[in-house]
Write a structure and sequence with these properties.
189 residues, alpha+beta, Jelly Rolls, 4-stranded antiparallel beta sheet, 9 strands, 16% helix
Length: 189
């Protein structure tokens, strides 16, 4: 029997809070207006001196593309024949979502796989790739090239962990025809 006054008090309190919010009694937060930020200095951990400012929003994602890369038939194991498609700057990002698509140039006689391998842009890793045909710490995406797809191919979208700030991109193609490939890399944290 004592529950009724408590429930009534709680209901009245919630109603009053809702009315205050609706008429502007509670502070409103907007992304459109600047907010004051207080920086606390912990000198034993990391000393901050002078003014602190952020010129623009810190990016949490980046989108990188390598479009229209012609990849002739070359096996993944033939590392000296791989098609190089530049360097991807991944500094500050911990993951990548990869996508690979494209089309076959001509009539496909032998099915195969088109793949992109991102290799850390570190000299010992690149030397192992060139001299020993060894992939150290690869980040890879691949797509099957099938006759039934009439010359078009596309991969899934695997999400991979990144462990290096820069990667070199290499492409291979085990079908019997050259392909025109597009690589998409969505970098995230």
């Amino acid at each position: 029997m004592r529950r009724t006054p408590v429930l009534v008090a709680v209901a009245l309190g919630c109603t009053l809070l809702l009315v205050l919010i609706l008429i502007g009694g509670a502070p409103r937060i907007s992304a459109d207006t600047p907010s004051e930020v207080i920086v606390t200095n912990f000198p034993k951990v990391q000393k901050i001196e002078g003014s602190v400012s952020v010129a623009e929003p810190i990016p949490h994602a980046a989108f990188v593309r390598r479009l229209d890369v012609v990849v002739p038939p070359v096996a993944r194991s033939a590392t000296t024949g791989l098609v190089e498609a530049g360097v991807i700057d991944a500094a500050g990002f911990t993951h990548a979502v990869l996508g690979l698509r494209g089309d076959v140039q001509g009539n496909l006689l032998r099915e195969g796989v088109v793949g992109a391998v991102l290799v850390p842009d570190e000299e010992p890793v690149l030397q192992a790739l060139r001299e020993q045909a060894r992939y150290d710490f690869p980040v890879e995406v691949r797509a099957e090239v099938l006759k039934k797809d009439r010359g078009y191919f596309a991969s899934g979208q695997p999400r991979r962990v990144l462990g290096f700030p820069r990667y070199r991109v290499f492409l291979y193609n085990t079908s019997d025809r050259s392909v025109d490939a597009d690589l998409y890399v969505y970098l995230t944290d």
